[in-house]
Amino acid sequence: MFFTTSFFIINIFISLIIVLFGKYRNEKRTNYLHENRNPDYNPLVTVIIPTWNEEAVIENTIKTVEKSSYTNIEIIVIDDNSTDNTYNIAKNLEKEFNNLRVLRKKGKRGKPQSINEAMEKANGEIILIIDADARITENYISSHIFCFSNEKVNMIFTNFEAYNFKFKPVYILQEIYFNFVKAIFYSNIFVKMIFMGNGIFFRRSLLEKLLPIDPETLVDDFSMATKLSKMKVKEFYSTYPAIGIQFVSNLPDLWKQHKRWYVGGFREMFKRFKEGNIFYLFIYILIGAIIFSPLYTILIDIFLKTNSFTYLSALIIGVYILMAVSSFDSKQMGIFSLLYALILTPLLMLFEIMVLIVSYVLGPLNKVTTWYKVKREKL
Q1: Contact 261, 219 (CB under 8 A)
Q2: Quick one: three-class SS letters along the chain?
Q3: CATH number, residue 119
Q4: Is 355 among the domain residues?
Q5: Is 253 domain-assigned?
Q6: What's the domain count of the chain?
Q7: Is residue 48 very low, low, confident or very high in pLDDT (cuts 50, 70, 90)?
Q8: How much is the average pLDDT of 102-124?
Q9: Distance between CA atoms of 275 and 273, rounded to whole angstroms?
Q10: Which among 112, 114, 296, 366 could bridge 213 via Cys, Cβ 3.0 to 4.6 Å?
Q11: Whether the predicted pLDDT of 1 surpasses 50
Q12: At 147, phi and psi to the nearest 5?
């Protein structure tokens, strides 16, 4: 009993240190950005909004951008030949806002090609890419644009929060997941250059070096990240102001969303490996070793009479505590955030492992390039 109690206490202590260090790193980089900015910096900003069947949200998104305190902006909505009323809604708003242009997509379906075509029409020195469900505060653009007065800053990806959060398991699972990603991965403690492609600012000169984004990719953000990593670009993560996004509202959509992320990510790894970067093959093999570890440790225990599964169990418990602890200060879940996380993290871990296993097998083999879009809520 003493060993079990000690083990949990030590795990919680180590997890807290890691999470707090990650949060400290994120705040440190954010403070650097906002302390070294010039509020007189006033470049033209192009806001690119790719759309496809977004009639439930596109008007609100355009209007929230138009309410920005920063006014030197142009907005390009590029519609991927929607089958609903998205294009007409956006086109009608052109009459109200003279800095808005609404374009029809010509090339392959998907966000990557939308960005490629929008950039052909963009005039801004700074480019902001947001999704069609995004909501931003009035100071969101100005707060980050002023940071580009610092010549060392070439890209900023921003924090995000769900504006459709509800106290239901599917929303809590996503809150736990993203809190973990922000604290452990966005902080660059273990990996470099991971970001979400909704709420990302580029200096134009940098983004042009990444173009064209591969129209076949399922993960435009990861595809860009691998190129940026090779270029050794320094990325900056800003915790505030955050961009508002919609969380997925049901488990089937969550499964399809995460499957697209992981399948797309594994495919990108193999593309980079085929281009000669063996590092990504190593990462792919390492991920496989982790997600299939329960299977081969059981086999090792059976045939070699070892206790390796005991150590694996300890590692799983450690990851569980780390994921749960990363949500201790969640704004969405409030004062009981840690309790919710402790209860639901095992379900999240099981869910993610199942999606990873399926995606790991399909990643190198799957030729499907359909861009799956989750259902939006009209709020």
Answers
A1: yes
A2: CHHHHHHHHHHHHHHHHHHHHHHHHHHHHHHHHHHCCCCCCCCCEEEEEEECCCCCCHHHHHHHHHCCCCCCEEEEEEECCCCCCHHHHHHHHCCCCCCEEEEECCCCCCHHHHHHHHHHHCCCCEEEECCCCCECCCCHHHHHHHHHHCCCCCEEEEEEEECCCCCCHHHHHHHHHHHHHHHHHHCCCCCCCCCCCCCEEEEHHHHHHHCCCCCCCCCHHHHHHHHHHHCCCCCEEEEEEEEEECCCCCHHHHHHHHHHHHHHHHHHHHHHHHCCCCHHHHHHHHHHHHHCHHHHHHHHHHHHCCCHHHHHHHHHHHHHHHHHHCCCCCCCCHHHHHHHHHHHHHHHHHHHHHHHHHHHHHCCCCCCCCCCCCCCCCC
A3: 3.90.550.10
A4: no
A5: no
A6: 1
A7: very high
A8: 95
A9: 5
A10: 112
A11: no
A12: -70, -25
- Identify the sign of the CA torsion 26, 27, 31, 34: positive
The position carrying tokens 């480019």 is 127
Whether the per-residue pLDDT at 360 is higher than 90: the answer is yes
C-alpha R_g of the chain: 22
Convert 118-136 to b/e letters by CB count within 10 Å (16 or more is b).
bbeebebbbbbbbbbbbbb
Q: Which position has the token pair 């910096």? A: 41
322 within some domain: no
Rounded CA separation 110/238 (Å): 27
Q: Is residue 283 part of a domain?
A: no
Domain that holds residue 219: 24-171+189-247
* pTM recorded for the entire structure: 0.93
